[in-house]
């Protein structure tokens, strides 16, 4: 037996109230005394421990939007909190930024690769750049499936010098209902890929795609044959009254998944919590741009910030370190992220965005901090968990179904 909800959009914010069915509030007239009415959407189902099937309707537990599951992914989740049992308590002195040393070692692949690496960072436009050509001592290797802190750094100390072992978890590729996009605190055009124009570095984006963890799925059922508004819904799914769920994948969905697997595939998820603020990072390899002078490798990364505490915090600054396989370490500092300084409150505790990075080397890794300010005036540096940038042999040559060219180029 599942429970039921009233579901509201109120001043562009979500509220969940325990009631009998799922409803959405829709505007009638600005002049009306009662400017809204309730429309039934569906009925919540009991959560499953096993995988959800293609076509399952759901509500997002964190962001509250309506969506539908396309297909699952299996990812290795590296949760550094599981290896750090020490309780973090606020102090008068803010947490210092990491030192130049990398906070962990990753298996960076073939160390014989050569070239002069250069990192490019988009969306989070840098206000200052610094390169350290003597950073090669941060490079190292570990066993597959583990991340290990470097022995020459004392500033990070994030896992008490223990290996961070990945735990396999299920994530889902989903479509977001376009009616809900204006009301969620997450980019709805975050899934990007490289186009087939070799002469430039343009990005394409598919609006309304997201990656959702199994635990964030709140399944529901609906009697509506068209319960979700998205341009790809009818192209990928068809209604089947005898099926459960009653929406089954078409051949176009399978073909689309197979064709675009290289840039859709997720492999690693990294998590770490500082002062009750949890940072989750998911990196994706996007492909390589070949030029007569060099090869440029591109990645996107999705970041979610979640406030687990009772006091509101605001993101003020970012501080990134980008390490390339050939030994270059670059620093990026700037205000906010993607032009915003979001507030994470108990009512709206999460914010999610996506950005991009490029290297002139097939692998590297990134880490850093977000400078956060709590409502009581306490400021601290929230650690961004280190994550690797690994290239793959596959590349995307043509835009997928539903892709739209982005207007801006990545620098």
Describe, in plain words, how this protein is organized in 3D.
- There is one protein chain.
- The chain is mostly beta strands and 411 residues long.
- The protein has three domains: 1-43, no CATH class; 44-74 and 169-261, no CATH class; 77-163 and 265-409, ApaG domain (Immunoglobulin-like), CATH 2.60.40.
- It contains three helices and 27 strands.
- The protein has helices at 233-236, 251-259, 261-264; strands spanning 4-10, 13-19, 22-27, 36-44, 57-60, 66-79, 120-122, 128-132, 146-147, 164-165, 167-176, 192-194, 202-205, 209-213, 217-221, 237-239, 247-249, 268-274, 277-290, 295-307, 313-324, 329-335, 343-344, 350-359, 363-374, 379-390, 404-409.
- Strands 3, 4, 5, 6, 7, 11, 14, 15, 18, 19, 20 and 24 form a twelve-stranded mixed beta sheet that branches. Strands 8, 21, 22, 23, 25 and 26 form a six-stranded antiparallel beta sheet that branches. The chain has a three-stranded antiparallel beta sheet with strand order 12-13-27, with no helix packed on it.
- The longest helix has 9 residues, at 251-259.
- The radius of gyration is 22 Å and the shape is globular.
- Pfam families: DUF525.
- Residues 104-116, 133-159 have a biased composition (Polar residues).
- Residues 86-161, 388-411 are annotated as: Disordered.
- GO terms for molecular function: DNA binding.
- This is Polymerase delta-interacting protein 2.
């Amino acid at each position: 037996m599942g429970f039921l909800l009233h579901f509201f959009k109120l001043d562009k914010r979500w509220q969940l109230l325990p009631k009998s069915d799922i409803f959405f509030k829709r505007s009638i007239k600005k002049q009306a005394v009662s400017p809204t009415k309730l429309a039934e959407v569906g009925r919540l189902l009991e959560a499953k421990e096993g995988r959800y099937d293609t076509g399952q309707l759901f509500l997002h537990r964190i962001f509250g939007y309506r969506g539908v599951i396309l297909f699952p992914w299996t990812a290795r989740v590296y949760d550094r909190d599981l290896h750090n049992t020490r309780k973090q308590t606020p102090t008068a002195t803010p947490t210092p930024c990491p030192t130049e040393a990398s906070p962990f070692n990753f298996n960076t692949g073939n160390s014989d690769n050569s070239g002069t690496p250069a990192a490019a960072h988009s969306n989070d436009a840098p206000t200052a750049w610094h390169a350290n050509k003597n950073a090669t001592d941060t490079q190292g290797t570990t066993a597959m499936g583990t991340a290990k802190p470097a022995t020459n750094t004392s500033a990070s100390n994030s896992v008490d010098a223990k290996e961070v072992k990945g735990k396999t978890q299920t994530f889902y590729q989903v479509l977001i209902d376009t009616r809900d996009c204006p009301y969620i605190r997450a980019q709805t055009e975050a899934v990007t890929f490289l186009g087939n124009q070799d002469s430039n570095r343009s990005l394409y984006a598919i609006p309304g795609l997201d990656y959702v963890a199994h635990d964030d799925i709140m399944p529901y059922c609906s009697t509506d044959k068209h319960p979700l508004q998205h341009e790809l819904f009818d192209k990928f799914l068809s209604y089947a009254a005898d099926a459960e769920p009653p929406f089954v994948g078409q051949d176009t969905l399978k073909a689309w998944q197979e064709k675009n697997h290289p840039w859709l595939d997720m492999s690693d998820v990294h998590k770490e919590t500082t002062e009750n603020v949890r940072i989750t990072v998911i990196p994706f390899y996007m492909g390589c741009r070949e030029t007569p002078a060099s090869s440029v490798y591109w990645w996107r990364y999705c970041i979610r910030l979640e406030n687990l505490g009772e006091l509101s915090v605001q993101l003020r600054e970012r501080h990134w370190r980008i390490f390339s396989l050939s030994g270059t370490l670059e620093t990026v500092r700037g205000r906010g992220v993607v032009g915003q300084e979001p507030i994470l409150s108990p009512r709206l505790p999460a914010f999610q965005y996506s950005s991009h990075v490029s290297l002139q080397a097939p692998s590297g890794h990134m880490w850093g901090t977000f400078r956060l300010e709590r409502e009581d005036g306490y400021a601290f540096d929230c650690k961004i968990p280190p994550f690797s940038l690994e290239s793959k042999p596959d590349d995307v040559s043509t835009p997928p179904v539903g892709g739209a060219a982005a207007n801006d180029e990545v620098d």
